[in-house]
Amino acid sequence: MSEPQPVLQIRGLTMRFGGLTAVDHFDLEVRQGEIVSLVGPNGAGKTTVFNLISGVLRASGGSIRLLGRELTRLPAHRITHAGVSRTFQNVRVFPQMTVRENILVGTHHWTPSGMLGSALYWPGTIRAERAAAAAIDDAIALFRERLEPRLDDPAYSLSYANRRRTEMARALAARPKLLLLDEPAAGMNPYERVEIAGLIRAMRDQGLTILLIEHHMPLVMQISDRVAVMDHGVKIAEGLPQEVHSNPRVIEAYLGRRAATA
Q: What is the distance between the alpha carbons of residues 170 and 175, in angstroms, rounded to a whole number?
């Protein structure tokens, strides 16, 4: 029996900025229901890969497919429509909007746009609004104790951790086929990191496919099904967390050649 089609399939992905090659013939597959971590030293090209997948940047070469559909030349809004949602390394929320309104933004691609679509309650409009409301409820459910008491508060009044949770809930409200998490544990204390790990596992247990960038290696080792490692734009290792953790090329990339041969 053949293996199921990967949710994300990247082949030969390359990104050049003038004479600098930020991503060099990068390959990766992420299968349904997997948590795959993309790690590497600062400047390795990880966030550039995320920007290429989500359409923030257009690749110099290679292919990105979501469930077999070519995304490489699509603009960002069409990639969102196709089923890719993401969070960012630096938390991005709308500070003057409430938590509920921020999460609602994640459903914008479901609802009719323009005055006519919003003014006339056609059956499709009503169905879309009900679907959006259900998606918001589902997203909030994962963060209930943290966000539910703050739903009507402006985002600027939230703690850093709750702004991060709001951004993650907004990404979930889009009901993505692929969720990109860029350093979800950044700035979190040890207790919050444990909570984030549990949340990411809960998302996976609900069938979500997740690709994440994370520098906190204990978290990566704890939650990842597979790990891919980049250095200077090139993938240098991929495999199970323990395999990658003991790989000499990975040790060298993080700690230097002397540590790798010690």
A: 9
What is the pTM for the complete model shown?
A: 0.88
Rounded distance between C-alpha atoms, residue 230 and residue 250, angstroms: 9
| The predicted structure's pLDDT at residue 138 | 86
| Extents of the domains making up the chain | 1-83+176-261, 96-175
Where the chain has pLDDT below 50, the residues are 1, 114-116, 120, 258-262
Q: How far is CA 216 from CA 137, 159, 160, 179, 259, in A?
A: 30, 21, 18, 19, 20
What are the tokens at 89? 């390394």
Residue entry with tokens 């292919």: 63
CATH of domain 1-83+176-261: 3.40.50.300
Over residues 59-95, the pLDDT tens digits come to 999 999 999 999 999 999 999 999 999 999 889 999 9
